[in-house]
Amino acid sequence: MKRPFQSFGLACLLSLAVTGTQAADIIGAPTVEYCRVAGTSNLVLEENIGALKTEVVRLMDEAVSVAKSSEWVNSSRPAFVWASEAKVACGMAYGYLKTNYRDEDTLNKCECFHQRMVEYMN
């Protein structure tokens, strides 16, 4: 007669083996594009650093406003989630811009997450 602990251990090992197989299958799956910005955003293309700072601050302020709004915090739509992501990404992009460094990754994320926020608001 097997003890319950041994059966549980065997079940865990089988579960790990199956999970590992599924994980390998997921890796080969195509990735989903969450941003309509394929590659370079409009922010990255802006050459005037002053205009770029102004636009990043505008996007960040809009995201902060949505993230603070009880309408979106309590909504079933994920606008609040994307607003939270946008305010962080735009804040990081702005921090880099204050030192005159243009970090393309954070600029792309700032614009992308802001666009996603706006999509879910409409």
Structure description:
- The protein is mainly alpha-helical.
- The protein folds into two domains: 1-31; 42-121.
- It has helices at residues 4-27, 42-45, 49-68, 70-73, 79-98, 104-121.
- Helix 3 packs antiparallel against helix 5 (79-98), helix 3 packs across helix 6 (104-121) and helix 5 packs antiparallel against helix 6.
- The chain is elongated, with a radius of gyration of 22 Å.
- It starts with a helix and ends with a helix.
Summed up:
The protein is an all-alpha fold. It has six helices and no strands. The chain starts with a helix and ends with a helix.
Any descriptors?
single chain; 122 residues; mainly alpha; 74% helix; elongated
SSE layout:
Blueprint lengths: L3 H24 L14 H4 L3 H20 L1 H4 L5 H20 L5 H18 L1
Helix pairs in contact: 3-5, 3-6, 5-6
- Topology pattern, helix = H, strand = E: HHHHHH
Radius of gyration: 22 Å
So what's the overall shape? elongated
Q: Regions with pLDDT < 50 over 5+ consecutive residues?
A: 10-26
Task: Please tell me the overall pLDDT.
Answer: 79
Distance between the termini: 62 Å
**How many strands, which pairing sense, and closed or not: the largest β-sheet?**
none
Helix content: over 70%
Integer count of domains: 2
Structural class: mainly alpha
Report the total helices: 6
Strand content: under 5%
